[in-house]
Amino acid sequence: MAAHPDDENTRLIAHFANVDKVETAYLSLTRGDGGQNLIASDIRELLGLTRTQELLAARRTDGGTQFFSRANDFGYSKHPDETFNIWDKDKVMADAVKVIRQWRPDVIVLRFDPRKPGSTHGHHTASAVVGMEAFEKAADPAYRPELGDAWQTKRIYWNAYTWRRDLADHINWDEVIKVNVGNFLPVLGEGTAEIAARSRSQHKSQGFGSSGQRGEILEDLELMAGVDKGENDNPFAGIDLSWTRVEGGRKIGETLSRVESQFDLANPAASVLDLLDAYKMIQELPESAAHWRLRKGQQVQEIIGACLGLYLSAGTDEATVAAGDSLQIEVEAALRSDFPAKLTLVSVYGNGAVNQAPLAANEKLTNGGKFEREIGIAISEDAENSGPYWLQKAGTLGMYEASEDHLIGLGESPDPLYVRFGIELEHRGEPYTLIYQRPVRQQFTDPVKGEQHQPLEILEPVFAELGESSYLFTESKPTPVSVKVRANRPDLKGTIELCTPNDWTVTPAKIDIELDRKGEEKFYVFELTPPAGQAQGMIVPLVKLKGQDEGYTRKLVTINHDHIPTQLASLDASVPVSKLDLKTAGSRIGYIMGAGDAIPEALRNVGYEVTLLDGNDIAAGDLSRYNAIVVGIRAYNTESNMANYQPKLMKYVEEGGTVVVQYNTNRRLKIDMTELGPYPLQLSRDRVTVEEAEVRLLAPDHPALNYPNKITTRDFDGWVQERGLYFPNNWSDEYTALLSSNDPGEPARDGGLLVTQHGEGWFVYTGYSFFRELPAGVPGAYRLFVNLISLGNQAK
Q1: Are 20 and 107 part of one and the same domain?
Q2: Residue 233 sits in the same domain as residue 156
Q3: Spatial contact of 529 and 498, defined as CB atoms under 8 Å apart
Q4: C-alpha–C-alpha distance, residues 719 and 482, integer Å
Q5: Residues 449-478: what's their mean pLDDT?
Q6: Nearest to 468 by CA among 587, 606, 632
Q7: What H or E segment, with its residue span, contains residue 327?
Q8: What is the pLDDT of residue 161?
């Protein structure tokens, strides 16, 4: 149990699942929404979608199962007290208890120490605090009985680490066992630490690619509560892991042991009769073993299908379908063994399938043959939307809400549609039918990637998306605002309007729309006029379809990466709109993209011409044509050629240019840290996580705080998530520190914005989180950032 995607110990998971052969799960309290993104510009809930899928991909690799609570990763926190002030601790605790009672672990391993608050990320310590309390509460029948039957886990450990002396000093070594997680698996031809490395490498958005290790690797587990620590460095010592622990399970265990000992790799179907014996006994287990009846019954059923060489699928050409629309589904059943089998049932069920009668089937399945049919179904008009269940209701900064309580804990939403296949087998002279289910997925052949299977979603019939992620106005004059409308079903007619704050004016009031084809997109343009003074608010497009009272205000977002399934999400289409007092200077900006951010778009929104610079532009281009060059977030961490570009950038500064470098982490730099700027500076892990933290002007007369906009402390109102991160903590005297801020109880952090003249130009290093603030439309952040890129214009 831990706080975020990538906090898990994949070596322990791979060891428990593949060597000890115990069912192993990771409970991540959050989905990692508040982190950074190394592979795209998506942040917040879209980053959480990516990181959720990366965790699921990791578990598919190492053999574990994945759970989540509803806690929202709101960004870096320095103490668990702050974390619990933002999370709803009672809800997070209930989620953890629910997972424990449903999963029924014998052993829990905490990734962080609950005894050292303030020594690490506040979410980390909070996850350990929740784990310790949930260990006790899950066993208490009086605590939230609606979450399931009480369950007493035998032991709870902390996965102790010694590389940090401040945490290692208080380890109780008398309660520590050492687990070797470097085992070789001859059947797989690799070791658990090699599997673990592939698992950890699924966290691509965090840059956590890992190389496999070989040989003995020891993990320390310190007993925190429960029975004795476990003899012979075995966390499961004294715990019955056999079928004898289950009432009525002894004979099942004997049968499955016989299957294992007699298994014929050349003829897996030879084990089907014994497996059916075991399956039938599992189905007859008493109610006291209902947990095992469900879990092991499903597993043995799938093993039977695998031994039969049974292939079952349900595919469609569509990625989405709307309520009230229809869908064509291609079903396929194939047998790749000589075991007698018959297909007796094919039926569609799930969210919104309308009275779909089972397909009459009495097909004998033969080795090498296959059954194929096309089924047409109608989706009911009141079918509920699918997609990520934690994004369908409005949440808070600290918590998501589940669309339905029974979904709490799941890694992702269940597929909205399934096909059931009835497979009749001959068992000891009698027919016996197993019901398999397969999700309906979009299936297609990509010319490069080959066969692809992607989730199918039931979503709104129409989507509307504004052209920008935020709108900023510096004058009270009409400005065109474009809205893209996308049809998710054919033959749509209706109107679209733009809902605005009361003191804003929009024309026309509404526009008629007509879209003939599913997937068709059309653009509609309104003119939006801000009020005379400064103002902020939200605007949202509203589509009303003919004959319907309900309006639609959501957009369709697609996340597409090769290492995870394509993610489709219906999200709130509203965006911030601001009228602000903003003066600009200069017009042309060169931008070197790093890990990915939306600042180029934000600068274009206030009138700048932004050019994304590639290697040829930097190495051979004329940089003097740009008023300033901005280096994107983590560029010196991610772009291998930055060290080669640096002399050209410094020459540009010497000759009168302005370079603004945004934050980089102090690890894995592609350049010597002393060469990040024209003079030495030292990056640290210092950050200011409280977005409302006081900001003090250290050099109020400096040009960067006065031209073309006069910066005051009011410009730091309304910032989101944090002030900044990875501030320098040591720098050469040539730099001027402009701002100071700190989290409560901490010393001043003065290195977040450093400026120096070099030759005829200016160099700026900033750890302040403009990459979050500008896309969020924060007026003061715009004013300050414009000043930074305007330094050279003032000098001229």
Answers
A1: yes
A2: yes
A3: no
A4: 27
A5: 92
A6: 606
A7: strand 326-335
A8: 83
Q: Which residue has the higher pLDDT, 369 or 728?
A: 728
- Identify whether the C-beta of residue 750 lies closer than 8 Å to the C-beta of residue 740: yes
pLDDT of residue 486: 98
Question: Mean pLDDT, the chain, as a whole number?
Answer: 93
Kind of pairing between the strands at 457-459 and 417-427 = unpaired
- pLDDT tens per residue across span 192-228: 999 999 999 999 999 888 998 999 999 999 999 998 8
Element housing 551 (H / E): strand 551-552
- 762's CB contacts (< 8 A; 6+ apart) are 653, 657, 658, 659, 755, 756, 791, 792, 795
Residue 534 contacts residue 580 (beta carbons within 8 Å): yes
The SS3 call for residue 279 is helix
Residue 68 tokens read as 């989540």
pLDDT of residue 725: 95
Query: For 251-279, what is each residue's pLDDT tens digit?
Result: 999 999 999 999 999 999 999 999 999 99
**pLDDT of 168:** 66
DSSP H helices, 63-161, are 80-86, 89-103, 122-137
* Enclosing domain of residue 537: 462-578
Task: List, in order, residues 6 or more apart from 277 with CB less than 8 Å away.
Answer: 255, 427
Residue 555 and residue 571 in contact, taking contact as beta carbons nearer than 8 Å: yes
Same domain? For 609 and 541 the reply is no
From 558, 578, 598, give the residue that closes a domain.
578
What pLDDT does 163 receive?
67
Q: Are residues 660 and 748 in the same domain?
A: yes
Residue 461 Cα distances to 226, 403, 486, angstroms: 53, 19, 9
Q: How many residues does the chain have?
A: 796
pLDDT given for residue 547 in this prediction:
87
Cis peptide before 700 (omega within 30 of 0): no
In-domain check, residue 279: no
Q: What are phi and psi of 741, to 5 degrees?
A: -160, 165
The beta-carbon contacts of 445-449 under 8 Å, at least 24 apart in sequence, are 449/562
Q: What's the whole-number mean pLDDT along residues 528-534?
A: 91
Question: Quick one: 170 and 47 in the same domain?
Answer: yes
pLDDT at residue 134 is higher than 80: yes
Q: Are residues 452 and 493 in the same domain?
A: no
- HSE-CB for 395 with a 13 A CA cutoff: 24
362, two tokens: 């009495």
Contacts of 733 (CB under 8 A, 6+ apart): none
368: alpha, beta or left? (left if phi > 0; alpha if psi -120 to 50): left
Give me the pLDDT at residue 41, please. 79
Query: Could you tell me if 586 and 477 are in contact, meaning their C-beta atoms sit under 8 angstroms apart?
Result: no
Exposed, middle or buried: residue 54 (CB in 10 Å: 0-12, 13-18, 19+)? buried
Write phi, then psi, for 601 (nearest 5 degrees): -65, -40
Give the helix ranges, DSSP H, for 727-778: 770-773
pTM summary value: 0.84
Instruction: Note the pLDDT of residue 172.
Output: 86
Q: Per-residue DSSP letters for 683-725?
A: EEEEEE--TT--EEES-TTSGGGTSSS---GGGGTT--S-SEE
CB neighbourhood size of 539 (10 A): 22
| Average pLDDT of span 80-98 | 96
Tell me the C-alpha distance between 706 and 585, whole Å: 12
Q: Are residues 341 and 484 in the same domain?
A: no
Given a cut of 90, whether residue 581 has pLDDT beyond it is: no
Instruction: Tell me the one-letter amino acid at 755.
Output: V
Q: Which residue has the tokens 């049932």?
A: 345
Token couple for 703: 């040009």
- Cβ atoms of 377 and 352 closer than 8 Å: no
Evaluate the omega torsion of the peptide bond into residue 508 and state whether it is cis, within 30 degrees of 0. yes
- Residues 404-460 pLDDT 10s: 999 999 999 999 999 999 999 999 889 999 999 999 999 999 999 999 999 999 999
Q: How would residue 47 be classed by pLDDT, with cut points 50, 70 and 90?
A: very high
**Contact predicate 54/203, CB 8 Å:** yes
